[in-house]
UniProtKB/TrEMBL annotation:
Pfam families: Glyco_hydro_38C, Glyco_hydro_38N. This is Lysosomal alpha-mannosidase E peptide. One of its GO terms (biological process) is mannose metabolic process. InterPro entries: Gal_mutarotase_sf_dom, Glyco_hydro/deAcase_b/a-brl, Glyco_hydro_38_C, Glyco_hydro_38_cen, Glyco_hydro_38_cen_sf, Glyco_hydro_38_N, Glyco_hydro_38_N_sf, Glyco_hydro_57/38_cen_sf. Residues 295-367 form the Glycoside hydrolase family 38 central domain. One of its GO terms (molecular function) is alpha-mannosidase activity. Its cofactor is Zn(2+). Keywords: Disulfide bond, Glycosidase, Hydrolase, Metal-binding, Zinc. Belongs to the glycosyl hydrolase 38 family. Residues 911-930 are annotated as: Disordered.
Length: 951
């Protein structure tokens, strides 16, 4: 009997409304009352047990308790009555977060448990992957859980056809082989997983809470309506029915649901009576029943905002650690608020987009507030790093640069004043070069570097400003920031044009297709109707026919049934369910093509394709870039015809890919996909489009023997390949009907003008050889996800004078990382402790050059500190990695999803050691300063450091 509550950290109500129990007209739910109610109910009887997941809520409640209550709760935890499972701030979504964000969200909660309840409670939480409500499941998430110490994964929602197949074949329990790249490490990446029988609720008729209507258990013969035997019979029958689909004879009865146990005593009092009667008649019933925990069982716009804030959190942590060397007290400010907000946004009703609109607005507000708190830290940290004599210089940022608004660069007339300082920070551990874009209101600007030498730059005219953005700049200045140092910055100066610094060239504008256009690496040609026609890979001299367009599906409007029992013709498309009303794609404009114009400058070309007044895109082709970037602007999506619309970008090539394509799983390994196919059951595809859509977090590709077409995205999208050689990504949705899955609203977001939401997104597309595809994709994903961040300050004096008083360049590394290693985390834990997490970027076999073990030598690597001691930790940094030797090893039948070959208690070999790679002994920093990483491996370390303070 697993007593639990599922407390969405935002859904129909905001996070604060759910915690307080406010806005009850929407939902009767108050988390503070759940926790207030559960604690004394557990204290009443020592055999009672309860599990809790969402640390975002628990931390608020904990902060409001006095010392006496905290002591009582600590005792409940120590006695095993209150157990935390999963341990993260939220129950994260699995389709949208990147691997890095997922790990970071779990780390936030599990470190809190470690600090407040000690290692046993934190370790216990990480032993369970409790994913009972997310909408589908990812093997990369299962891998993260396994590497964090999980012994069991519990899933609540899977495809209904998959569920029927598993029930009929008794495959509700299996050992998930989560990473082909880490197969050499034995069971390290395996996770015993089970699918719950009834979602995460109790059997029908056994819900006992203020929001339930089940009859109470009546066992007192002095009162009427005694029903104890009838209720016990019904419960045992339900348990045996559940057990019939499992291999194991241990059945997890989930006793709880959304925001339940607000009256915990109602639950426990009825369960005590029910369990007592069944236990007294155990022989007759043939069952054993007891309180337990999972540990005992197994001993579109918000998406981009989340990702950009996650990247900024990484940057802020790096600067915070670096600034400790410049000042013993460190920089002013904190990243905790942003960490909280980014962690909460990984919730399966947040980044997934299945919350009410006012909740989505609140999520965005929390990210904004967290970002603002981190701004104070990054500004002060940069001041301490740049100023040779610290004076508290304030650096600004331009959060609306994507819509051509930047007060720092627009507010300074080009002919007056000395100009603007632009500090570009590169958070990657390898050097990078970018064409950086600055909104400006004049063409009389130049860019110079720290030696006052001119920097390659050009100016382009912006498209008309978006509705509600009257202050958008007229121009964009694009300059080349070459070789930005790894985990460091370089300084540039936006200065009035002069003979010493000539004005950036204004690109020449012309209408019509620009044939051809390209650089040293690729070339694009366009059709007479304005659409892309072909892509030439210059390195191989190979041209591939490639047509790209913007289109949309009409959305299903559903029917009369408000809650259809199955997915059928009555089902509307909505926040939860993608359901076009046909397989037909419609043009976003009146014609099939696009009006096209081009701006051609000395360093790059920008092509504007206008499909309609609500759908246009710009393709950027700049010198040295390996692939073009396309930036879409979509919206407001028109609904005057009373049709909802699902807007997609489609790339149709001549590649003979058949039914196959690949997409990434949480920005890590690529998953092979096949149209109208599932690997573990016979698919009956009743919706030709929807059943072939999958999550695309950062990249997707298709290929034939001669070439590979790759798309790289700046946020999570849905994507598919609906025909051979064709890739499509959904980039916007505007719908008019609720899909009747709980949120109670149509997905009809509005923008700042009150009209439909306008989104702007970026993709990169590339055609090259299949063998070199990963060598383009992996760095491209890093660049688009962790692009350099610009910080601005007024220029006082000349650039040369600034360079005397400031450090114009700095790197936190004495040498760059190998290209196949990703600096996933560098985080200050306390004044002498740093958390370091390193990941191998490449999967096994995808790159001839980089899919091999990588080594990082940490001796003298970090310029801000020296490492004096180190401990390798589990993935979520809550326990030493040595503890993972005690993870269970399961007997199974083999394969990527292996059936459990024997019942639970005999399936697990409790004495089996944790087995690392057979070609490498169990590791740790004790043997030396070098860190070795296998393809797709991630390793986490806690470092004790000494800061290299400057004299």
């Amino acid at each position: 009997m697993i007593c639990h509550t599922h407390d969405d950290v935002g859904w129909l109500k905001t996070v604060d409304e759910y915690y307080m129990g406010a806005n009850s007209s929407i939902q009767l739910a108050g988390v503070q009352y759940i926790l207030d109610s559960v604690m004394p109910a557990l204290e009443a009887k020592p055999e009672r047990k309860f599990i809790y997941v969402e640390q975002a809520f628990f931390r608020i409640w904990w902060s409001q308790q006095d010392a006496a209550m905290k002591a009582r709760v600590r005792k409940l935890v120590a006695d095993g009555q209150l157990t935390f499972v999963e341990g993260g701030d939220v129950m994260p979504d699995e389709a949208n977060p990147t691997f890095s964000d997922w790990v970071d969200a779990l780390t936030r909660g599990q470190r809190f448990l470690l600090d407040e309840f000690g290692p046993e409670a934190s370790v216990a939480s990480s032993q369970v992957l409790w994913q009972i409500d997310p909408f589908g499941h990812s093997r990369t998430v299962a891998l993260a859980a396994a590497l964090g110490g999980a012994n069991i994964g519990v899933l609540g929602r899977i495809d209904y056809q998959d569920m029927a197949h598993r029930e009929s074949t008794k495959r509700m329990e299996f050992v998930w082989k989560t990473s082909p790249s880490l197969a050499s490490m034995g069971p390290t990446a395996d996770l015993f997983t089970l699918k719950t029988f009834n979602g995460y609720g109790p059997p029908d008729g056994f819900c006992f809470d203020v929001v339930c209507d089940a009859p109470p258990i009546q066992a007192d013969p002095l009162l009427e309506d005694v029903n104890i035997k009838e209720r016990a019979d019904a419960f045992v029958a339900a348990a045996k029915n559940w057990a019939s689909v499992y291999t194991s004879n241990n059945v997890m009865m989930t006793m709880g649901s959304d925001f339940q146990y607000q009256a915990a005593n109602m639950w426990f009092k009825n369960l005590d009576l029910l369990m007592g009667y069944i236990q007294d008649n155990a022989a007759a019933y043939g069952v054993d029943i007891f309180y337990s925990t999972p540990q005992n069982y197994a001993a579109p716009a918000l998406k981009r905002y989340v990702r950009s804030n996650s990247a900024y959190l990484r940057l802020s942590r790096q600067l915070e650690a670096a600034a400790m060397a410049a000042s013993p007290s460190g920089p002013v400010g904190s990243t905790d608020g942003l960490w909280d907000a980014v962690s909460v946004l990984q919730h399966h009703d947040a980044v997934a987009g299945t919350e009410k609109q006012h909740v989505a607005n609140d999520y965005a507000k929390q990210l904004y507030i967290g970002h603002a708190h981190a701004d104070a830290l990054t500004s002060d940290a940069l001041a301490r790093l740049t100023e040779r004599s610290y004076s508290g210089l304030v650096f600004d940022q331009c959060r609306q640069a994507n819509v051509s608004i930047c007060a720092a660069t627009q507010g300074v007339p080009a002919r007056d004043g000395p100009g603007v300082v632009v500090v570009l920070y590169n958070q990657l551990a390898t050097a990078t070069s970018v064409w950086h874009r600055l909104p400006v209101d004049s063409t009389e600007w130049a860019v110079v570097n720290a030696t006052s030498a001119p920097v390659p730059a050009q100016i382009v005219v912006n498209p008309p400003p978006l509705p509600g953005r009257p202050t958008a700049s007229k121009y964009t200045l694009v300059f080349h920031a070459a070789d930005l140092p790894p985990m460091g910055y370089a300084t540039f100066f936006l200065v009035p044009a002069s003979s010493a610094a000539p004005a950036a060239t204004l690109a020449a504008r012309a209408d019509g297709p620009p044939n051809p256009v390209g650089n040293a690496h690729f070339e694009l040609t366009f059709r007479s109707d304005g659409l892309l026609a072909a892509y030439t890979d210059k390195a191989r001299g190979r041209t591939t026919k490639l047509v790209q367009r913007l289109a949309y599906y009409n959305a299903s409007a559903g029917g009369e049934q408000p809650h259809p029992p199955v997915l059928n013709e009555f089902q509307a498309s909505g926040a939860y369910i993608f359901r076009p009303n046909s397989s037909a794609l419609f043009s976003t404009g009146h014609a099939a093509g696009a009006d096209i114009s081009v701006q051609n400058g000395p360093f790059g070309v920008e092509i504007l394709q206008r499909f309609s007044d609500w759908a246009y895109q710009q393709i950027f082709v700049y010198a040295g870039e390996l692939a073009p970037t396309v930036e879409y602007t979509i919206g407001p999506v028109p609904i005057a015809d009373a049709d909802g619309k699902e807007v997609v970008t489609v790339f149709a090539s001549e590649l003979d890919s058949g039914a196959n394509w690949h997409s990434d799983a949480n920005a890590r390994e690529m998953i092979a996909r096949r149209r109208n196919y599932r690997a573990t059951w016979q698919l009956n595809c009743t919706q030709a489009i929807a059943c072939n859509y999958v999550p695309v977090n950062t990249a997707m590709y298709l290929e034939d023997d001669a070439a590979r077409l790759t798309l790289v995205t700046d946020r999570s999208n849905g994507g598919s390949s609906m025909a051979s050689g064709e890739l499509e990504l959904m980039i916007h949705r505007r719908l008019l009907f609720d899909d009747a899955r709980g949120v109670g609203e149509a997905l009809n977001e509005t923008g700042i003008t009150g009209n439909g939401l306008i989104i702007r997104a970026r993709h990169m597309f590339h055609v090259g050889s299949p063998e070199s595809g990963a060598d383009f994709q992996r760095p491209a994903v890093a660049r688009i996800t962790y692009e350099p961040t610009a910080f601005f300050a007024p220029l006082t004096g000349t650039p040369a004078e600034w360079a005397v008083a400031h450090r114009t360049a700095w790197s936190g590394l004495s040498a760059p990382f190998p290209p196949n290693v990703f600096l996933q985390t560098l985080q200050l834990l306390d004044p002498t402790t740093v958390l370091l997490r390193l990941s191998h970027r490449y999967a096994l076999g995808e790159s001839a050059k980089w899919s091999r073990p990588a080594t990082v030598n940490t001796t003298g690597l970090f310029t801000a500190f020296s490492i004096t001691a180190w401990t390798e930790l589990a993935l979520t940094a809550n326990q030493p990695v040595a503890n993972l030797r005690s993870r269970f090893v399961w007997n199974s039948s083999g394969g990527p999803e292996a059936a459990v070959a024997s019942p639970l208690h005999s399936a697990v070999n409790r004495a089996s050691p944790f087995r690392p790679s057979p070609h490498r002994p169990d590791r740790g920093y004790g043997t030396g300063p070098s860190v070795e990483l296998l393809p797709m491996e991630t390793r986490t370390f806690e470092l004790v450091v000494e800061w290299k303070h400057e004299a």
